[in-house]
Design a protein that fits this description.
Oligomer: heterodimer
Shape of chain A: globular
CATH topology of the largest domain in chain A: Butyryl-CoA Dehydrogenase, subunit A, domain 3
CATH superfamily of the largest domain in chain A: Butyryl-CoA Dehydrogenase, subunit A, domain 3
Strand order of the largest sheet of chain A: 1-4-5-8
Keywords (chain A): FAD, Flavoprotein, Oxidoreductase
Number of helices of chain A: 11
InterPro entries (chain A): Acyl-CoA_Oxase/DH_mid-dom, Acyl-CoA_Oxase/DH_mid-dom_sf, AcylCo_DH-like_C, AcylCo_DH/oxidase_C, AcylCoA_DH/ox_N, AcylCoA_DH/ox_N_sf, AcylCoA_DH/oxidase_NM_dom_sf
Number of strands of chain A: 10
Bound molecules: flavin-adenine dinucleotide
Order of helices and strands of chain B: EEEHEHEHEHEEEEHEH
Largest interface: A-B, 15 and 10 residues
Helix content of chain B: 25-40%
Order of helices and strands of chain A: HHHHHEEEEEHEEEHEEHHHH
Number of strands of chain B: 11
CATH class of chain B: Alpha Beta
Family (chain A): Belongs to the acyl-CoA dehydrogenase family.
GO molecular function, one term (chain A): acyl-CoA dehydrogenase activity
CATH superfamily of chain B: HUPs
Structural class of chain A: alpha+beta
Protein name (chain A): Acyl-CoA dehydrogenase
CATH topology of chain B: Rossmann fold
Radius of gyration of chain B: 21 Å
Structural class of chain B: alpha/beta
Radius of gyration of chain A: 21 Å
Number of domains of chain B: 1
């Protein structure tokens, strides 16, 4: 058994770290405080080909898979971006590139992948609705065939990155949930050109004021007789579930990677402060009450990373990865939260000052326990799908 | 145009650097090796000249085995190939013998233009470009913050205390650059992957016809007689502002002849 990362993944680790080395923790603090997109880092990532890692080479991308994206997300997050800002990386290199590379029609691939590879075109992903979050199959946004077009109506919530996205991967129902048998039937995923739909008055959105992760706004989105050509379906009509699983599993993996990077930042910040801050005439880190939580976080990070890389490795081989993706997501978001909490306790009152990054790390670590999937739902999956326990719902 | 960039691996300035107790040379094993920062600017300038005028960029590094990491970094930025001059006999060479070894190697590999960083962060002698030019009988254009090539001619803007000089010469020539010259690129993903496949030729002293009696610690013209750890910094002077802070600060600076 060989634990060495493939050369491609090592190159990604080093390359992203080199770009991020010029942007310190203060940079990310400022982006968050000013609620602004990290333009400078984004431009460098685009130039170096880091945004198109998972785009096939014939479209100008790096020809890599989920493992390289995972390592990239972790490196970006661990550099200081942390869970909130590393999410920016998941929207396009993950949702857009990975999905179209695997499920896009030849026309869709030709139209979108070169722009995604160059970092010129961005994407977002719209699944959650006000009445369908954890119970995603209960979505009601409908798509009705009308000649060579589909007409879409409904509402989505929490859709992140709509402002910058040229394309939205939109999950709809072509068969209402109540009539679908099995429940996974009747889902259809569309590619929607956001600026065109907005210009036509068929799509509108409104940002949701939120607690953190403000480098990318999350929005309410409304579809009002939105007309899209039938050629904009990704995969097959009614059979969107196949596409959806291939969005949701990588999403879990990549957000686990961003949470893990967040845990690494929090641990680094906590350990540095524990070494430097003296109380009662000695470094606070010499108290085991401070040292042990940090040590435990270190163990959790290493454990989470093993399953995380394994999940990505399985996905890249086309093997089932649901169990591993769910475990990795659970373990990484727990590690991130525990790391932020330990860093918080270590900083004492200073943790509450916005001059330190701890408050940001804590807020961003908290989202990982509910999005893109809640901890309870991850545990439900393990309980029912893996352990075969009876369903409660 | 055949451009050679001399690139040096230096100990990371962020880590503790040590001299060896046996031969008083830099302990290159003790610290992480990184590319000398000014060498990145030299590589960047070479790549820009190649992009504008065509040709090939070769990296030349003299250093121990582990300097291959630094060579790969320069190749990942976009250089075409590399020559690694590595031989136990070269260990401990001073600036003079290093310039001899590099000049011998440059004669072997050939060049139209050699570009160097103006100094390295470890030894900081800043003399190598001049020594190389002397040994190779070519013009030296040092401390450049701008380089232009036209035909067989080269013009640089040379940074001076009073502004800059414009220096012209004909190729082949030796140029050293300062950090104002450009903004080095980051290696791209494709660059890093391609670098693994690029050719790195290894030269020993025999390959470059280097005379062993002119290199190495035993033949150095400069000698480290002794060294000691720098004493910890003494406590500074605190000026307490009681309404007269400005005056006191000025008096202090005047007493030290700063103003
Ligand atoms: C910052 C942020 C960004 C987001 N970005 C996007 C995006 O880009 N695109 C997108 O589509 N969505 C996005 N989301 C939405 C996210 O995926 C959902 O919030 C998430 O799936 C949870 O759904 P919900 O909020 O409706 O919670 P609910 O489903 O209402 O759950 C509420 C609580 O009840 C618990 N619960 C429900 N059922 C059970 C059960 N059977 N057993 C035990 N507990 C249960 C849940 O675990 C949770 O604790 C984002 C969310 C956030 C916060």
């Amino acid at each position: 058994m060989d634990f060495t990362l493939p050369e491609s993944a090592q190159a990604v680790q080093r390359g992203i770290a080199a770009v991020c080395a010029r942007y310190d923790m203060d940079y990310w603090q400022r982006c968050e405080a000013e609620k602004r997109w990290p333009e400078e880092v984004w431009a460098e990532l685009a130039k170096g080909g880091w945004l198109g890692l998972a785009v096939p080479e014939e479209y100008g991308g790096g020809g890599q898979g989920l493992l390289e994206l995972t390592v990239a997300t972790e490196a970006l997050s661990a550099s200081g971006a942390a869970g909130g800002s590393a999410f920016t990386y998941v929207l396009t290199p993950g949702f857009g590139a990975l999905t179209l590379a695997r499920h896009g029609s030849p026309e869709q691939r030709a139209a979108l992948l070169p722009g995604l590879a160059a970092g010129e075109v961005e994407t977002c992903f719209a699944l959650t609705e006000p009445d369908a979050g954890s119970n995603a199959l209960a979505i009601s946004t409908s798509a009705r065939a009308d000649g060579a077009e589909y007409v879409i109506n409904g509402q989505k919530i929490w859709i992140t990155g709509v402002q910058r996205a040229t394309w939205m991967l939109l999950v709809t129902r072509t068969i209402p949930a109540a009539e679908a048998k099995p429940r996974t039937n009747g889902l259809t995923v569309f590619l929607v050109n956001v600026p065109e739909a907005v210009a036509a008055g068929q799509l509108s959105y409104r940002p949701i004021p939120k607690m953190g992760a403000n480098t990318t706004p999350s929005n309410m989105v409304f579809f009002d007789d939105l007309r899209v050509p039938a050629t904009s379906v990704i995969g097959e009509v009614h059979a969107g579930a196949v596409v959806l699983w291939d969005i949701l599993n990588p999403e879990r993996v990549l957000l686990a990677a961003s949470a893990l990077g967040g845990a690494e930042v929090a641990l680094r910040v906590g350990v540095a402060y524990a070494k430097e801050r003296e109380v009662f005439g000695r470094a606070i880190g010499s108290n085991q009450a401070i040292a042990f939580p940090l040590a435990r976080v270190k163990a959790r990070i290493e454990l989470a990373r093993l399953t995380l890389y394994k999940a990505a490795w399985l996905f890249d081989r086309g093997l089932p990865c649901g169990t591993e993706a769910n475990i990795a997501k659970l373990a990484a978001s727990e590690a991130a939260w525990e790391a932020a909490d330990a860093a918080f306790q270590t900083h004492g009152g200073m943790a509450y000052s916005l001059e330190y990054p701890v408050a940001r790390l804590l807020t961003e670590a908290r989202i990982g326990k509910v999005a893109p999937v809640t901890e309870e739902l991850l545990l439900n999956y393990l309980a029912t799908q893996v352990l075969g326990l009876p369903r409660s719902f | 145009m055949n451009i050679v960039v001399c690139v040096k691996q230096v100990p990371d300035t962020a880590t503790e650097r040590k001299l060896r107790s046996d031969d008083k040379t830099l302990d290159r094993d003790a610290a992480d090796g990184v590319i000398n920062e000014l060498c990145e600017y030299a590589v960047e300038e070479a790549l820009r000249l190649k992009e504008a005028h065509g040709g090939e960029v070769t990296v030349l590094t003299m250093g121990p085995d582990k300097a291959t990491d630094t060579i790969r970094k320069a190749l990942a930025m976009g250089a075409d190939k590399a020559v690694h001059l590595v031989d136990p006999a070269l260990h401990g060479s001073d600036a003079l013998s290093t310039s001899y070894a590099l000049a011998q190697t440059l004669k072997k590999i050939g060049f139209d233009l050699v570009i160097l960083g103006s100094e390295s962060t470890d030894a900081r002698t800043g003399m190598l470009a001049a020594m190389l030019a002397e040994r190779l009988g070519t013009p030296q254009l040092t401390l450049a913050n701008k380089v232009e090539i036209s035909g067989a001619g080269i013009t640089v803007q040379r940074v001076t205390d009073y502004g800059f000089d414009k220096v012209e010469a004909s190729l082949p020539a030796i140029v050293s650059v300062v950090e104002k010259i450009n903004e080095p690129r980051y290696p791209s993903f494709k660059g890093i992957m391609a670098a693994k496949k690029k050719q790195v030729q290894t030269f020993g002293i025999a390959d470059a016809e280097i005379d062993a009696a002119q290199v190495g610690v035993a033949n150095a013209w400069s000698e480290v007689a002794d060294f000691a750890v720098a004493p910890p910094r003494a406590a500074g002077t605190v000026v307490k502002d009681e309404g007269d802070g400005g005056v006191k600060t000025a008096d202090y600076l005047a007493s030290k002849k700063f103003i």
